[in-house]
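At your convenience, could you comment on the folded chain following this short note?
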Amino acid sequence: RASAAGAQGGATAELLAALEAVTVEADAIAIMAPHMDQLRTVDSTVVEKIVMKQWWGLARDIIAKSHTQRVDLSFAVRKAVRVLKDEADELLRTLNPKYGVASQVSPAFQWAQNDTSVFLTIKYTVRWNAPGALEVTDPKVIIAGNNFNFTGEGKHSNNKYKYVLGLSLFDNLAESVSTWSAASVGKLSVTLRKKWPRKWPRLLANKKAKISNMHVWMEMQEKLDSSLGGYTTASNSPVTCAAAEKLYCLATDTCKKVENCSQCPGKAIPKLEDSLCSGMPGEKASISFSDSDMDEKELGGELKLNKARNEFDIDHYMVYWGKDEWAKIQVPEGKTALIGQVVPTGSDTELKLPMNTALPEGATHVLVFSKNEYGEYSIPGHTSITDAVLPKSKPDNIVFEDEDGELGEVSGTVTIGKAKDETRVNDYALHWGRSATRKLHSASFIRDVPKQTDGNPTHYIARSTKIPDGATHLLAYTKNEHGEHNSAVSLRIVDNTKPCRDEGAGDCPMGIRIEAGASSANNKATIRVEAAAEEDDVSHYALYWGRSNCGQGGQAGAKNGHIVDMEKGKPLDWEVPKDASFPQDSTHVLVFAKNKYGESEFCRSVELGDSVKSEL
């Protein structure tokens, strides 16, 4: 198949080269003549080449023959014609001496915000409700500091436009995590990540600045307002304070002269390059950790850091081993209590703790300190360390005998032999298994069985419990709050059933009859049962008076009183005592096969005729 495709590709290349080499349509007709009756084998690029060469007569002949040969060439033809048409239209537009010069315009845009980002939708038109270019060529977006700049060229109504938008925003941006895309037709979508989460009072730094085609994106803003509920609207920023030749004090949300930074709580150091009154961080992050390494005295997993409310002056989050909620552990010379550090991103973040990381001696907590060039904030975020360790031992054994008697159903008591070491065991998890070592792919869990102070834990599986598809075993695992032991004890499920599940089966009674007339002075008649042909699953034969014969299955209301159970292997005769009486409405005697799991659904019956009734 690959060689055939290669051969066809070579033939197409030769045909395209031959057409490229000629300039007269007659020569092209001669080249195509051998192929006209087999257009299905002609590649679409050949048809495109003929249209682009403007050999219209040949092109029409090919299209006409394609209809009779049921070959669809519409895509190739339309594609080539569209290119020619675009070139012709461009030629006509160049008749306008001003067409080659793009008019510079400011595009219309909408904006909305949440606590972490500003969202822009820029439309390639000067008015939001007016039509515009469907796309722009060579779009450029520059995001730096608090500035956003966009340029791109587009065409609309036979005119070229250069769209230029420059915005000086209320506060600084996080350039590395801001994004933009030209995904939707005629629009540019921009997400500007705020350097610090807060609610801006406006989009632009200069409250007096006006842009006629700037609009609030009301539909989006209504969706985002819930994220701003806990924020008060900022009044100032480092950007607006810099415009007034002052420095920003975060604690009071005010602008201060350089010499007055001493009045900014906790931020007395002027930092001119950032237009901030600065100092050591004044807020902490919080931290959480759940150990995923199940080995004792070893940890691993994700340290989750919830960012400080304001990250204005935090350069790093420093994560350490702690001896309590406040203090780092003391370590020998050459060692460090540092686990790692994370650069703030404006969002919650994580630090990976590798698996098999040894738990340092004396470490009871993980601490996170906010840090900048002036030092670490004295109050850390903290979380206590819980060394997750799975149970050491699996259960000793599992015992269960199905008592239900129905095919495909089980019930009875499951007894789980307690583990030899129950130190880290809280429960025993019981599952359905698809083998002796593997759980069912889904819905395997039966229940958690609490461990017992004395004796083995047990669980009763209720009657008529269906055995799930694919389940062949019961599995029992030791378990605690961190998970289950990695191996289980297992027991193959034996679905015990009553005998005579199908009418006429080999373990159903063969028959029953009544012999009238006394065989002794103490009886009236004898009822004889003919044993089943296959008695392996039969322990007894149960006799009943019956209201009807076994036509409805016997268990469906036919019984009218138990007579006797006759043990397999012993004489299956019952001599009716002289003082015996049968219940009213009895018309038959029924016999059922029976074992420890119950009586069969089906039975054999014999009618109580008038002569027999008179003797009984």
Observations:
- The longest strand covers residues 147-156.
- Residues 2-21 form the longest helix (20 residues).
